[in-house]
Amino acid sequence: MRYWTVSEARAYLPRVRELAECIRHAAKLRKGEAGSTNGNKAPILLAQEALEELQAGDIIFRDAMTGLLDFHAKGADGVVYFLCWRLDEDDIGFWHLPSEGFPGRKPLPRDPE
Question: 24 near 31, Cβ under 8 Å?
């Protein structure tokens, strides 16, 4: 299991954005909401490759249309939590415990309780 720091996740965010956009495009194609403009490779194949890259980094992709995803993180206090981001956000600014999900998002920084 890889645990991301906030700075590592932020540094990887430009690539994550590309991957999430690729997955969203394929999801829109499947729903009939977009045309294909990805060149030689099929959009679904590109989306599969994007998902595999995210999984290889222990990043959990939650929703194709919003680009919602979670980076595993671990606090200095040993608590495992998620750094939470979605495509409409410019930066990683939220976190939540695994049991809380998206509704439990809180602004960074995470302060041990």
Answer: no
**DSSP code, position 1:** -
For the chain, what percentages of helix, strand and coil (3-state, to nearest 5) are there? 35, 20, 40
* pTM of the model as a whole: 0.87
| Rounded Cα gap, residues 24 and 34, in angstroms | 10
For the record, the structure tokens of 81 come out as: 């939590």
36-66 pLDDT, tens digit per residue, is 555 546 778 899 999 999 999 999 999 999 9
- The backbone torsions φ and ψ at residue 70, rounded to the nearest 5 degrees and listed phi first, read -130, 135
Q: What is the rounded distance in angstroms from the CA atom of residue 35 to the CA atom of residue 26? A: 9
Give DSSP secondary structure letters for 65-79: TTTEEEEEEE-TTS-
